[in-house]
Amino acid sequence: MAFPSDLEIASQARLRPLEEIADQAGIPQDHLEFYGKGAAKVDLAAAKAMADRPRARYVVVSAITPTPLGEGKTTTTVGLGQAFQHIGRTATIAIRQPSMGPTFGIKGGAAGGGYSQVVPMELFNLHLTGDMHAVTAAHNLCSAMVDAHLYHGNACELDIHNITWRRVLDVNDRALRNVTIGLGGRLDGIPRESGFDITAASEVMATLALCSGLGDLRARLGRIVVGYTRSGTPVTAEEIGAAGSMAVILREAIKPNLMQTLENTPALVHTGPFGNIATGNSSIVADQVGIRMSEFLLTEAGFGADMGAERFFNIKCRYSGLAPDAAVLVATVRGLKAHSGRHRIVAGRPLPEALLAENPDEVHLGGDNLRKQIQNIQLHGCTPVVAINAFPDDHAADLAAVAEIAAEYGVRATITTHFADGGRGAAALAEAVAEAAEEESHFSVLYPDEVPLTTKIEAVATNVYGADGVDYSPQAAKQLATYTEAGFGDLPVCIAKTHLSISSDASLKGAPTGWRLPVREVRASVGAGFVYPICGDMRTMPGLGRVPAAKGIDIDTDGSIVGLS
């Protein structure tokens, strides 16, 4: 009998009224704003109203470097959240809202999988409460204000060839990556080159994720740099008069969304900053609420621990003031074998037979990636727990090899089957995480605010990525000097590189050594609050594949969605 699809499982969910979910979590009813039966906005004042409740143990969920096989990080976050009730404890999960670009593209939705999902699945993956659209509208209002400013005299003296603010859309559309705008007659604007990014890549999204409240959001929006004058002076959204209206558009989007899992664990879903060029973490304001809702708050960090977790530690925690008590590293036998570099894996084709054969030596070879990611967590004074996300056809010897790698570092490791078994399949993991989180924490960020930007970049490159050093292009070196002179030198760094390798070369698997990080360009997300060096070609507007998920998604005459994954 075939295992049911995620949508089939989700359609059978027995949802509890959100009033009950909120009441159990201590959220006062007068701080809820319901969006139908499946979601509710949580007013930011709830965090203050819940201040007398005990602080939860704060746990970040990360993983080995991603492979095309998928390691199940979101599924593990949801399954672990459900598992705590099976050991007599309480938990809340905080995850990102998915972009509809990937939902209709290749990746699919991001509600988890199997019997570890956030529900209603359709609502989660499609629009939710409209936050993505609010970010799109706020961003594009600023874009329109920039072009109106140019048209009506350009009082700020923006250099038309150095306007960094583009437009965004929550659809995968490669044809919009580079466009020429303002064509037509004299009344149609100033012709210039521009382009589109996907909404998740908007600095407005990153700003929303990293703000601590409405006042902080308004101030950060005002600091967004939209371009530069010919002399290199930054011009901000405040100076062109856009920041106030952007904040108004985002007045509802700043509120986290309350949902639930298949087993009725509270789930806070909020923001979805792009993992390649931004933090790849859910919002600070969601964590401010979630930290008082239960005994444990589980939050997911995008991509591998060298990216999402590093940014969680050094950017998100720096701004939130919250210190993690433990971390979960998700690994699979298949993923570690892929990191051995011995297999060619092609999306849509059957997996190589050799990949599925018992081979613990190959797990140990690819296990260098897990070893480095364990070190990356420990580097920040945080205790990791390895979650071995097991597949039904995994071999016992291969699973044991993963546990042996964890044991090399004195790290707990447990096998989980939460995809097929829900919360009970991660009960042993919940026990291990509880033990780790209740030990004394020694968390610290990797670098202080006051050191130079180059020192920050090199600290991440050498300590987290394992690079021998950093090479800056002349353009990057000039940009770093300009940002320092402009007063951006105290900002943390968010290195934009491939997520498919710990290095900057996507083809290098495991834990590469003997390489240097090439920084070709540096940009500043001043409103969000970080500088991002770019290492390689970062696509901020994905394209649709030959057979995108959109071709298989439809709706029947009863209004039921089909084909969503």
Textual characterization of the structure:
This protein is α/β, with parallel strands linked by helices. It has 21 helices and 25 strands. Strands 1, 2, 3, 4, 5, 6, 14, 15, 16, 17, 18 and 19 form a 12-stranded mixed β-sheet that branches. The protein has a 3-stranded antiparallel β-sheet with strand order 7-12-13, with helices on one face. Helix 7 (131-151) runs antiparallel to helix 10 (243-249). The longest helix is centred in the first third of the chain and has 21 residues, at 131-151. It is globular. The model has no long low-confidence stretch (mean pLDDT 95).
Summarize this entry quickly:
This protein is α/β, with parallel strands linked by helices and 565 residues long.
Evaluate the radius of gyration. 23 Å
In total, the number of strands is 25
Structural class label = alpha/beta
Choose one word for the global shape: globular
Largest sheet: 12 strands, mixed
Which features characterize this protein?
single chain; 565 residues; alpha/beta; twelve-stranded mixed sheet; three-stranded antiparallel sheet; 21 helices; 25 strands
List the helices and strands and how they pair.
Blueprint: H1 6-11, H2 18-25, E1 32-35, E2 39-42, H3 45-49, E3 57-63, H4 73-83, E4 91-95, H5 100-103, E5 112-113, E6 116-119, H6 121-125, H7 131-151, E7 158-163, E8 167-169, E9 179-181, E10 192-194, E11 196-198, H8 203-210, H9 214-223, E12 225-229, E13 234-236, H10 243-249, E14 257-261, E15 266-269, H11 284-290, E16 296-300, H12 305-320, E17 326-331, H13 333-338, H14 353-356, H15 360-366, H16 368-378, E18 384-389, H17 396-407, E19 412-416, H18 418-421, H19 427-437, H20 453-463, E20 470-472, H21 474-485, E21 517-519, E22 521-525, E23 530-534, E24 554-555, E25 561-562
Helix pairs in contact: 7-10, 9-10, 12-16, 15-17
